[in-house]
Structures
1.
Amino acid sequence: MQPDSTDPQSDPTDALSAVPAAGARRATPVTGHLRFYYGPMDCGKSTLALQVDHNHARQGRVGVLLVRMDRSGRPQISSRIGITRPAVEVSAAADLRGLVRARWAAGQRVDYLIVDEAQFLTPAQVDQLAELADDYQVDVYCFGIATDFQGRLFPGASRLVELADELRPVQVDVLCWCGLPARFNARVVAGQVVREGDTVLVADTADTADTETGQSTTEGDEIVSGSGTVGATVRYQVLCRRHFRLGDLGTTSGVQGQLAFA
Ligand SMILES: [Zn+2]
């Protein structure tokens, strides 16, 4: 909190500050902020999303949890360490401003949004989140994977990099088989790293038939029914940049990324 310039107790050196005096600042609307926490799969993003929600809720703030497609296939944010919270499933066509306005119209508060699997948002939805922050003072916390199996930004992640006030790498190191930090999610088919194919695969798994499934939602193997690789078993493995580049899965191919707390 900046001291009020009319306060006789205020520091006179404030006059040199680049921050406008309180009177001038009244003309500048308060805005919410848009943050993007990103990291490779298995780095603990969903756990952090639930922790951020808990911290705000404890302060008496009211938030809405959104998810584009959780690994569980249900409308909830579920972390790998077992904590789960109900969430609103967001379709590609959903207008996030409308979702928040509907809550307000029903007399509910919305102080903040938690968005998990934010890489699957459409760029237009990220624009809507920025508008909610700027014009409606809603704080938005997005969590997601930055890059796809080709090492390129997901459309939603790309727009978040462009618009977010803050970009925060999630500070849990996921390790490549060689021990270096793993920043890339390689798609592995029949023991080989593949670099071609759909960004988001259509999976045909037991309880989520005909459901869009992205790489972060993959729990173990999935059967691809997408273009060109019908019937092949696909999995994802985290790799460091060098081994992602070389397509080198190491001698213990099949071992998923291991967690180490930084
Ligand atoms: Zn490596």
2.
Amino acid sequence: MTSTNKSKNTFALTTPVYYVNDVPHIGSAYTTIAADVVARFERLRGKPVLLITGTDEHGLKIQRAAQSAGLTPQEHCDTIAAAFDKLWHQLDIQYDRFIRTTSPRHQSIVLEFFQRVWDSGDIYSGRQQGWYCVSCEEFKEERDLLDGHRCPLHPNKEAEWRDEQNYFFRLSKYQSRLEALYQERPDFIAPESRRNEVLSFVAQGLQDFSISRVNLEWGFPVPADPKHTLYVWFDALLGYVTALLEPDQEPTLSQALATWWPINLHLIGKDILRFHAVYWPAMLMSAGVPLPEKVFGHGFLTKDGQKISKTLGNVIDPADLVSRYSSDAVRYYFLKEIEFGKDGDFNETRFVNILNADLANDLGNLLNRTLGMARKYASGCVPGVAGADIPSDNPLKARGLTLGEEVARAYESLAFSSGCEAILALVRACNKYIDDRAPWTLHKQGQQREVSEVLYSVLESVRLAAYLLSPIIPNISTEIYRQLGFKLQPLPELTPQTGQRAAAGHLDLVALKEPAPSALPEAAAPTAAPAFEAASPAQGQRWSKVLRPFAEAPAYLADALAETKGLLIAVLLLLLAIFAGNALVELARRTDRIPVVSPTLEAIGIGYTIWFIYRYALFAAGRQALFGNLQSLKQEFFGGNSPAAKIKTPPLALSTDTSPSAEGVSALPPLEAQPFAPDSPARYIDFNDRAAIAAAAPFSTHSRWGTLPASQPLGEAKPVFQRLQSAEPVSPSR
Ligand SMILES: [Zn+2]
């Protein structure tokens, strides 16, 4: 009973099923971000992953909250559940199931489970007397309450005295089996401090707890006695089981438990530890269901060193935070800055400083300056050296070779903070390495081989850092990969500020919502997005590649004009064009052999050509584009298997046409010319694209230092993370 099936290669994890008494707060966001990071990491490792979240919608507190808002309980739940769903989209949470406990399918599961526990003789009717905290939905021991019978977690609310007939669950019967469980499986509760908390609670002696309420309408009636309503926790915990059902599956326990059970990880806040680490395993034991693998309780958040509470008016609105700073920023701060499992603090000034230091300066500037040097010293390409040829005493290689495993262990043990630290250490080592080696001096001295080694090892280290950080900052990592020249499928438009994807509905592809009465709008059935689209460039399009740069010259000109030297360049070009035009006209007149159409038209044509050549000569991006176009033309006309032909043409720096058919797809060689190669790291581009990640090479390949393809043309450089300017105080909200 206490064993789990560790051999299965799937990974199922849950956030709490959040109570919908109010809109989501920062604590819920914190748990859910962490869960999403674990899910993304396990997906990188190639495991099928099921991330479950949802809302717990029954109980007295909901009934009262709805009443005070003048809504029916269901209306209230619909509004709040939608707010959760919206926030998860804003935070790039890629959940698989959103369970709502008001769904009829959930009722079927709860009733069947209740029956099993009933049949085990673990439910009886008895008298419940005691202090009840409505906010916790829990009876409190007298010894746990503060003065005036106030709940320690809700000190501004008095607990209510209750004396009623209830149904009880025989928790006391499971005292010794639970103790045995904690002994046999020391990692069942984590971290260590939570485990100790539970051990001492259980050592005090477990008391049966009531699983029904009278005078409560908003919930499922107890089957044997409909005057009673099932207690909210008995109902809510089973949301984890209901969520495992496929949308079209018959709602039975055996169906629900068939594929994903046992859950690998319940991620929770420490306030609901007892329900998950004591009540829940006992309920499962009673129903004869195997136990989950692990319960991890993280710490509480404070703001500026103070407890966060509505009374203090210092509530952090996560939706406001993410809209002002981007999801990557919020995700990174909470996972990097707070040791997961311990209490942690949010301070907006520190928030801004850390993001600027780590993401804008250390990581962003590093990439930017290195791309600049690659443009100067390596024709805008990854230098043509292989990672394997770089000596192992290279400080970046030495560090990078073990980093993948180290970070994987950190993710596995939910030590996000130390994982980030290890990655950032490599990034900082890169900055130091560049300063030490001074590639600009090496270049002057003609030591091209050394310059290549420096640039390659830095670019590769940035790639590795982006890959390993991708579960936490998927948008920034995607942008870094793009700038490193990985581009095999068209990207949706990027928003200018953060490089975040614009609302492309990418979650809707994979999100499976639990159907519920008057529920959230149902998502489409999951459809695997094609990893890339078949491209069949028409004959005429070949020449459009040659001609396109001419058509885009005005855009280049506009760009140059916007630059500081633009006006000077324009004037010089104009003079040059007039001079050349006149000279040509003069020549034509003298020889009297060239028909003169119009000196003005000729002047424009010649000026245009000179500008075009100048543009390509001056800017690396232009050279790359020309190079890429010529390569793909060569590929189409002569076939061939040169490494460069496998790499997709980088985009023109100023292409204004972002439609996939014009830019991305037509530039791809046809499918036959580029067979699906899952072991090619160059395929990997969008860390939000689950289909692409599932099809990509394994974690062991990408997390190995030295896999950046040599001579890969680099993409256009731009800041991957805009420096945050100031810390406006978070509006005290709600
Ligand atoms: Zn309470």
